[in-house]
């Protein structure tokens, strides 16, 4: 921690970025229960919150605040906005005085030292501090910051600016002591924050011309970057060789080149290997424990992005991993690893365990839990469940989008589509076009055959985000749902061109070929997908399925094993493996895999199709193994869950035939044929069963005879009674009856004799 | 049972029926409510006898009634919110806006409201699938009608309806609402099961079933859903459970009856009800014990026994006993009379049955239930004018009842207007797709029109709905016999025979089938059994001759001769009238005797042949001449 009272030490950049960013308020609001609050802070906090607002204000302004040192520490900043605001004014005052002197004193000496990130940001402090310092005056931040919790960067920026505009606090105190250059810098920064890039450029340019300070050059480059003028930014940065001097400049340079898609140049700038990998500790002492994301990490991330863009996925993966290992705060790197499917589920968990969350201080636990929710849903479900539980219980995040997303993805991976749909709709209620939820939602709608909703959603998306891959994925899915395969393929390919790392679109594209039975194209599409997304097993799985469809079982087995190596918990995969071994006639193996598959979906919902097909396959396996009773049981379960199916009835008929229960066999075969009259195997089986039925000897054990015996217990009584009745009725009716019976001979199906009367 | 307890019993029945009618109509089980109310009013006037206990009983009754009301209010335990919700849901239900009703009830916890929600969900699903069935019926009608005009494309129709049927069956699975929400029986059932598990789990702790009615209703629904899935045994369990919670739900008994497919099952079920079935009562209410909560006295079990024995040919003595016993309590209840008529109908006592039906119509002229059976009787008895009157009469009451349509169809059939008849049957089925007799009778009509494939299709539908319909099985057997597919027809006759093992025709048909297949020994067994069951000489000659011929083919001359002689002897019972079979038998005997040298006997046989075909008479003359020569 720095000593803010020392005039020579400029506050590090981290301090300032925190001050700039509205996160300050947010972090305070996160209400960590484990928060250790300094007693002094406590007291201090109460002060401004209670009636003594002015008092504290005055006191801090005077620069005599005993809490100053405390207040400047990042911890306190995080705990209480009012303190920051109150106390930060002091360093501000000091800084405004010190920075220029500092810079002016040795503008050329120790350029590297002064050009640390801290200095680069140095000039911004004034303006940013002012923004924050305003907060206690109005009570807005108390509530505002809370609401801001979930808002994105842009929103945050605007809220800050809003507060700036609404309440302007005695700026003359500050401004009066500023040098003219400082004022210009303030101006430039305000303009930048408010996205008025022309203004920022205009002023920044003037500042740079006046001072020729590399700091100002960097800031100008920053302005150019924000204005999408990448080439100008590069020119500026290269002119003074800034990029070779300072790591953050290099980062910016690399970013610009990346945006220009000059990947090789960008790679040159950021280096192919992490230069800091071995000398982490002395890389930059000012990258303090309090702070933002380490630039090295960002550099690594950029490197990863470049590699990914160059389709060098292995290197990209290492780079991303490095990035997140260097600084756990680099969520983007972490997310890229997972969402681009670069690593397998197990690797994900290993990575998670190797991450060092300790730099996060009080947030350690929460962030760890949050990251836990991101990794694969196939394994360690209990861990992620507890993570989710404590996140929603202790941190009040139960309605946060990431928790919801976790729930949704869990439900989806368990094939509970209807619940998943509901959860998606709930999540999208708050954030209609959330890109992390939409793909799952779209897939869910497809699973549930929600064509109508897909249609509306696709139209909405196409109107609002015509350049997003998700939009075209949605459109393609709609066409899949209405079974217009060529169109679906067109849009899937569009989606995958827009975002090559969008695995769902790639797979959809491959599926369209599979659906049309174009095996070769499907195979190549799946193979490409398998190359692009080494972290998911699905492409390999489908490759295996394609090979199985062409009866190339050995190749299928190979691919299945590949898929199995990446993810051994997917019931679909296990099921396919079971089927494959069934086809290879390795029944015991098949049984084992199918049982595994059943276990994997055990807590999945009953109606999901996957359970049914697993059950069915298992039943067939049992049938082949000769375990007829078990097979029958399985088939019955299938019937209960899936409803009527001709094949199942046929199989049941066969099994009953095998187990010598002829009546049932015939019944089931009938049922089968009723559903599907063209089923030749059922026809043959039925004929066979009927022949058997005809050849059964009518002795005491024949069910018919037994049944008749059962009745004939009452027989005598009955007949007597009947005859008695008849005799009691008139002779006329008797004769009629006789006549009727006469008719019976011909066709009569029943006693009514109905129509037969008319034949006469 | 002494008089006092008898009175008490009647009081209890009265009170229970009253409450059932209210409860059930509140929760939209209109049919059961109607039945309960009918029964209540059929009980005759409350006894005014001024016995000591009677004086007391109304008081007691009133007191318990007050308590009852209070308890009921407690039990229903609809909070104010829930009650308001109920009002909304109830009116939506009445307006048949089932999806809306489900939507508004989506978060309820009260068992009764839960029932209403799931019930409306089920009905909505049912409505949607019913619509698809209707389309089948209408399109089927078009194709069939057109083909009736040109009898050529017979097979085409069979396939046509087959595919339609398949389509319909497939659609039975899942109804997708186009917005991703699916509803199917399985989904409703899953929700119901999890809810029941929850409720029972918590209830056991409380050791009190707080809501007998609600649970009863929920189990009833579960049974219906399971039955729709063709899961009869589980459905039966659910119905029994429902009845043990709430026995006065008549529809539930009826559904339970529908689960029974064979006579032996019915016996098992009855013994189960007698021995193991218990009615769960409110333990907390210690007010004078309700006789209706004890199985022996429960009047509903009696009604069920009546219904099940009527439907599955139980012992007629027992049946009559039950009917008489029930008539004592419910002297004016049309249902019992109708059941009585049906019993007689099933024992082919058409005259009695007709009389009884007439009484029913007099007693309750606008009651349409079971009148389609009445029309069947009139049709069989060829009372066409009466049938016409009945058709006119019911058409005035309500044209849009399946019973009405069946009666009209019978009427048109009697007038030989088979197309019209088929149309009316189809209409009946649109109104009530579970009307098996309509399917069967429609099958008969198609047989009339010589359209076997369509007939088969109809019969199949009938047995799909009601496996116990032996007429449909028999019809199937005959239709396949016409198509020369004897293996199939044998199986269907076997089915019919299982249902009616004491019917001669079944065994005879079986025997014929076995003969055609070539399995002579079994054929002989069947014919012998048929002879045992037969009471009609006219038919017996055929049987005997068939038997004799079979023995002849098996070269069992002794038995053959014996049956030939028996066949000829049957003439005596028919006032000496000769039938085709007796003539053939005589001829055979004549041939046999002449071969064995008994010329005198042979001559007698041959000479006695007076009727018959020209060839037969010719041969008889030839034998007679020969014998005369050799004598």
UniProtKB/TrEMBL annotation, chain A:
PROSITE patterns tied to this protein: TPR
Gene3D superfamilies with a match to the protein in the record: Tetratricopeptide repeat domain
UniProt-annotated stretches for the region Disordered: 1-24, 729-760
Keywords in alphabetical order: Cell cycle, Cell division, Mitosis, Repeat, TPR repeat, Ubl conjugation pathway
One annotated GO biological process: negative regulation of DNA-templated DNA replication initiation
TPR repeat ranges per the UniProt record: 469-502, 571-604, 612-645, 646-679
Gene behind this protein: NCAS0H03540
A single MF term (Gene Ontology): ubiquitin protein ligase activity
Entry's Gene Ontology cellular component terms: anaphase-promoting complex; cytosol; pericentric heterochromatin
Name of the protein in its database record: Cdc16
Coiled coil: none
Positions with biased composition (Polar residues): 1-19
Keyword Acetylation: no
Superkingdom of origin organism: Eukaryota
Composition-biased stretches (Basic and acidic residues): 740-749
Annotated InterPro entries: TPR-like_helical_dom_sf (IPR011990), TPR_2 (IPR013105), TPR_rpt (IPR019734)
Compositionally biased spans, kind Acidic residues: 750-760
Automatic annotation (TrEMBL), chain B:
A GO cellular component annotation in the UniProt record: anaphase-promoting complex
GO biological process, one term: cell division
GO molecular function per UniProt: cyclin binding; ubiquitin protein ligase activity
Stretches the record annotates as Disordered: 47-76
SUPFAM superfamilies per UniProt: TPR-like (SSF48452)
Pfam families: ANAPC8, TPR_11, TPR_8
This protein's UniProt keywords: Cell cycle, Cell division, Mitosis, Repeat, TPR repeat, Ubl conjugation pathway
UniProt keyword Iron present: no
InterPro entries per the UniProt record, alphabetical: APC8 (IPR007192), TPR-like_helical_dom_sf (IPR011990), TPR_rpt (IPR019734)
TPR repeats: 436-469, 470-503, 504-537
Residue ranges annotated for the Cdc23 domain, each copy included: 13-341
UniProt feature, compositional bias: Basic and acidic residues: 67-76
Domain of life according to the entry: Eukaryota
Keyword Transferase carried by entry: no
UniProt-listed PANTHER family: CELL DIVISION CYCLE 16,23,27 (PTHR12558), CELL DIVISION CYCLE PROTEIN 23 HOMOLOG (PTHR12558:SF10)
Stated name of the protein: Cdc23 domain-containing protein
Organism annotation: Naumovozyma castellii (Yeast)
């Amino acid at each position: 921690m720095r000593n803010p009272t020392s005039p020579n030490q400029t506050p590090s950049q981290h301090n300032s970025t925190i001050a700039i960013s509205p996160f300050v308020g947010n972090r305070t609001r996160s209400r960590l229960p484990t928060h250790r609050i300094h007693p002094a802070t406590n007291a201090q906090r109460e002060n401004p919150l209670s009636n003594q607002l002015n008092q504290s204000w005055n006191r801090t302004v005077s620069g005599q605040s005993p809490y100053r040192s405390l207040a400047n520490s990042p911890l306190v900043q995080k705990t209480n906005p009012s303190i920051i605001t109150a106390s930060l004014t002091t360093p501000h005052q000091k800084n405004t005085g010190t920075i220029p002197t500092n810079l002016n004193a040795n503008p050329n000496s120790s350029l590297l030292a002064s050009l640390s990130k801290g200095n680069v940001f140095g000039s911004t402090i004034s303006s940013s501090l002012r923004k924050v310092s305003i907060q206690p005056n109005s009570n807005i931040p108390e509530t505002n910051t809370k609401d801001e919790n979930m808002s994105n960067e842009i929103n945050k920026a605007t809220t800050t600016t809003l507060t700036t505009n609404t309440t302007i606090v005695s700026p003359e105190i500050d401004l009066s002591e500023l040098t003219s250059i400082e004022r210009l810098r303030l101006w430039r920064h305000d303009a930048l924050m408010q996205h008025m890039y022309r203004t920022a450029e205009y002023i920044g340019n003037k500042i740079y011309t006046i001072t020729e300070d590399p700091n100002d050059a960097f800031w100008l480059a920053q302005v150019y970057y924000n204005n999408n003028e990448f080439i100008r930014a590069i020119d500026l940065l290269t002119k003074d060789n800034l990029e070779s001097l300072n790591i953050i400049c290099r980062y910016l340079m690399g970013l610009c080149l990346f945006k220009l898609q000059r990947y090789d140049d960008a790679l040159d700038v950021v280096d192919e290997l992490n230069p800091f990998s071995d000398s982490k500790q002395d890389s930059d002492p000012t990258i303090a424990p309090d702070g933002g994301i380490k630039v090295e990490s960002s550099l690594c991330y950029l490197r990863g992005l470049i590699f990914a863009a160059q389709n060098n996925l292995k290197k990209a993966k290492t780079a991303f991993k490095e990035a997140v290992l260097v600084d756990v705060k680099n969520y983007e790197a972490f997310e890229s690893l997972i969402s681009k499917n670069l690593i397998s589920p197990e690797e994900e968990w290993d990575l998670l365990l190797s991450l060092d969350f300790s730099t996060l201080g009080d947030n350690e636990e929460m962030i760890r839990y949050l990251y836990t929710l991101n990794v694969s849903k196939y394994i360690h479900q209990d861990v992620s469940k507890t993570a989710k539980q404590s996140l929603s219980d202790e941190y009040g995040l139960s309605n946060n989008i990431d928790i919801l997303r976790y729930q949704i993805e869990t439900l989806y991976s368990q094939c509970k589509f209807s619940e998943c749909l509901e959860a998606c709709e709930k999540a999208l209620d708050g954030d209609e076009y959330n890109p992390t939820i939409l793909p799952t939602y779209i897939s869910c709608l497809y699973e549930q055959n929600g064509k109508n909703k897909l249609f509306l959603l696709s139209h909405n998306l196409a109107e609002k985000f015509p350049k997003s891959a998700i939009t075209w994925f949605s459109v393609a899915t709609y066409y899949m749902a209405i079974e217009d395969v060529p169109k679906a393929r067109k849009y899937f390919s569009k989606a995958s061109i827009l975002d090559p790392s969008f695995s769902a679109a790639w797979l959809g594209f491959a599926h369209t070929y599979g659906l049309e039975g174009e095996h070769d194209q499907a195979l190549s599409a799946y193979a490409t997908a398998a190359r692009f997304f080494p972290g998911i097993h699905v492409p390999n799985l489908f490759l295996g399925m394609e090979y199985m469809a062409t009866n190339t079982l050995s190749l299928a087995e190979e691919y299945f094993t590949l898929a199995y190596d990446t993810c051994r918990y997917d019931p679909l995969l296990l099921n396919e493996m079971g089927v494959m071994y069934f086809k290879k006639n390795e029944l015991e193996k098949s049984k084992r895999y199918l049982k595994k598959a059943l276990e994997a979906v055990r807590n999945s919902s009953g109606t999901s199709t996957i359970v049914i097909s697993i059950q069915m396959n298992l039943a067939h396996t049992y049938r082949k193994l000769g375990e007829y009773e078990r097979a029958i049981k399985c088939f019955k379960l299938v019937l209960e869950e899936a409803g009527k199916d001709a094949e199942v009835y046929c199989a049941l008929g066969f099994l009953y035939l095998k187990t010598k229960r002829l009546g049932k066999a015939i019944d089931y075969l009938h049922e089968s044929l009723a559903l599907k009259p063209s089923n030749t195997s059922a026809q043959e089986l039925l004929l066979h069963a009927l022949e058997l039925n005809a050849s059964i000897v009518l002795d005491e054990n024949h069910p018919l005879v037994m049944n008749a015996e059962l009745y004939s217990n009452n027989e005598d009584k009955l007949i007597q009674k009947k005859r008695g009745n008849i005799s009691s009725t008139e002779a006329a009716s008797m004769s009629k009856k006789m006549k009727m019976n006469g008719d019976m001979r011909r066709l009569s199906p029943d006693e009514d004799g109905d129509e037969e009367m008319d034949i006469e | 049972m002494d008089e006092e307890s008898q009175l008490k019993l009647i009081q209890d029945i009265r009170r229970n029926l009253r409450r059932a009618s209210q409860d059930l109509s509140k929760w939209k089980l209109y049919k059961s409510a109607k039945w309960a109310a009918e029964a209540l009013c059929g009980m005759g006037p409350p006894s005014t006898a001024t016995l000591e206990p009677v004086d007391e009983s109304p008081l007691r009754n009133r007191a318990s009634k007050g308590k009852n009301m209070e308890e009921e209010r407690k039990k229903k335990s609809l909070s104010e919110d829930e009650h308001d919700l109920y009002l909304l849901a109830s009116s939506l239900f009445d307006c048949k806006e089932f999806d809306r009703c489900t939507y508004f009830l989506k978060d309820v916890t009260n068992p009764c409201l839960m029932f209403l929600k799931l019930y409306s969900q089920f009905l909505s699903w049912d409505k949607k699938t019913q619509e698809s069935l209707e389309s089948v019926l209408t399109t089927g009608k078009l194709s069939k009608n057109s083909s009736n005009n040109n009898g050529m494309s017979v097979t085409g129709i069979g396939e046509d309806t087959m595919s339609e049927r398949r389509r319909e069956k497939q659609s039975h699975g899942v109804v997708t609402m186009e917005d991703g929400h699916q509803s199917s029986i399985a989904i409703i059932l899953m929700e119901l099961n999890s809810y029941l598990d929850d409720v029972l789990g918590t209830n056991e702790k409380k050791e009190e079933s707080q809501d007998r009615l609600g649970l009863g209703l929920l189990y009833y629904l579960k049974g219906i859903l399971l039955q729709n899935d063709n899961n009869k045994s589980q459905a039966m369990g659910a119905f029994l459970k429902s009845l043990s919670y709430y026995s006065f739900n008549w529809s539930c008994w009826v559904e339970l009856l529908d689960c029974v497919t064979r006579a032996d099952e019915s016996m098992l079920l009855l013994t189960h009800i007698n021995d193991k079935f218990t009615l769960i009562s409110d333990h907390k209410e210690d007010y004078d014990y309700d006789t209706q909560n004890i199985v022996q006295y429960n009047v509903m079990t009696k009604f069920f026994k009546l219904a099940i024995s009527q439907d599955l040919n139980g012992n007629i003595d027992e049946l009559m006993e039950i009917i008489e016993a029930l008539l004592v309590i419910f002297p004016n209840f049309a249902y019992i009379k109708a059941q009585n008529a049906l019993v007689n109908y099933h024992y082919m006592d058409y005259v009695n049955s007709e009389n009884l039906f007439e009484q029913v119509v007099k007693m309750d002229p606008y009651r349409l239930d079971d009148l389609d059976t009445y029309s069947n009787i009139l049709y069989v008895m060829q009372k066409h004018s009466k049938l016409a009157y009945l058709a006119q009469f019911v058409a005035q009451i309500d044209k849009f009842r399946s019973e009405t349509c069946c009666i009209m169809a019978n009427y048109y059939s009697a007038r030989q207007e088979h197309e019209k008849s088929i149309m009316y049957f189809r209409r009946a089925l649109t109104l009530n797709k579970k009307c098996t007799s309509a399917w069967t009778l429609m099958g008969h009509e198609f047989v009339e029109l010589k359209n076997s494939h369509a007939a088969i299709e109809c019969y199949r539908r009938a047995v799909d709905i009601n496996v116990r319909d032996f007429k449909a099985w028999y019809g199937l057997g005959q239709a396949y016999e016409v198509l020369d597919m004897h293996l199939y027809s044998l199986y269907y006759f076997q089915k019919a025979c299982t249902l009616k093992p004491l019917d001669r025709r079944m065994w005879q048909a079986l025997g014929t089938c076995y003969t055609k297949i070539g399995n002579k020994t079994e054929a002989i067994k069947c014919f012998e059994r048929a002879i045992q069951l037969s009471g009609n000489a006219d038919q017996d000659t055929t049987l005997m001759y068939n038997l004799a011929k079979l023995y002849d083919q098996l070269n069992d001359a002794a038995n053959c001769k014996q049956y030939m002689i028996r066949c000829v002897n049957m003439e005596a019972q028919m006032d000496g009238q000769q039938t085709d079979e007796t003539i053939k038998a005589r001829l055979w005997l004549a041939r046999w005797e002449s071969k064995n040298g008994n010329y005198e006997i042979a001559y007698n046989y041959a000479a006695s042949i007076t009727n018959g075909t020209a060839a037969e008479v010719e041969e008889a003359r030839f034998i007679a001449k020969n014998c005369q020569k050799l004598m």
